[in-house]
């Protein structure tokens, strides 16, 4: 296993820790740092793969797969804990899996649809939302101010991330419509 794929594996191994630590009050404070570490590994694995010529088909698939797992499990857990409204979590995950499904359909025909910058921004906003939500959730018991405004802050952060996600979806569909619509 090369260095980029090892970093992706580290990110994958962080997911159960993030989920478990969110449910344990004494460990919640660690979660934002674990999510930041996961985000850093996402940046580093791509950077190292490009710089050292270590890009592989498996690595490209594995990286996207682990990104989806990280976001899905984190958002579902935060939704389950009542930190993020579950309907926003469902909207976000629906969009992500719709794009994944479309990519899979056209890939079966030998066509690869490239990611747009708006998709990368979407992932960044998802991670920022998870960091903010988990940090405020961990700090809320120690601050009445945070406890009072946590849900409003997290709600609007998630709304912005969801709007960007759907903007990225529209851009993705528009740029790839010819290929997508020809699939039968």
Question: Would you mind describing this structure in some detail?
Answer:
The protein is mostly helical and 184 residues long. Helix content is 81%, strand content 0%. It has one domain (3-174): Up-down Bundle (Four Helix Bundle (Hemerythrin (Met), subunit A)), CATH 1.20.120.
Shape: globular
Strand segment count: 0
Reading the helices and strands in chain order gives HHHHHH
Radius of gyration: 17 Å
* CATH third-level topology: Four Helix Bundle (Hemerythrin (Met), subunit A)
State the distance separating the first and last CA atoms: 37 Å
Tell me the fraction of residues in β-strands, as a range. under 5%
Mean pLDDT over all positions: 92
Please tally the helical runs, counting DSSP H or I stretches of 4 or more residues: 6
Using brief descriptors, characterize the structure shown.
184 residues; Four Helix Bundle (Hemerythrin (Met), subunit A); 6 helices; 81% helix
Q: Helices, strands, pairings?
A:
Layout: H1 3-23, H2 31-51, H3 57-80, H4 86-107, H5 117-139, H6 144-181
């Amino acid at each position: 296993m090369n260095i980029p794929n090892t970093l992706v594996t580290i990110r994958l191994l962080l997911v159960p820790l993030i989920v478990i630590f969110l449910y344990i009050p004494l460990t919640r404070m660690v979660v934002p740092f674990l999510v930041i570490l996961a985000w850093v590994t996402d940046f580093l694995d791509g950077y190292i793969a490009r710089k050292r010529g270590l890009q592989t088909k498996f690595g490209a698939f594995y990286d996207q797969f682990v990104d989806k797992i990280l976001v899905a499990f984190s958002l579902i857990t935060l939704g389950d804990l009542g930190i993020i409204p579950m309907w926003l979590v469902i909207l976000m995950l629906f969009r992500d899996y719709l794009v994944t499904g479309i990519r899979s359909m056209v890939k079966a025909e030998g066509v690869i649809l490239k990611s747009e910058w708006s998709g990368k921004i979407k992932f960044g906003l998802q991670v920022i939302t998870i960091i903010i939500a988990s940090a405020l959730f961990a700090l809320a018991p120690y601050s009445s101010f945070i406890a009072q405004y946590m849900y409003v802050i997290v709600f609007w952060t998630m709304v912005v991330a969801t709007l960007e996600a759907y903007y990225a979806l529209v851009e993705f569909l528009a740029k790839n419509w010819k290929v997508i619509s020809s699939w039968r």
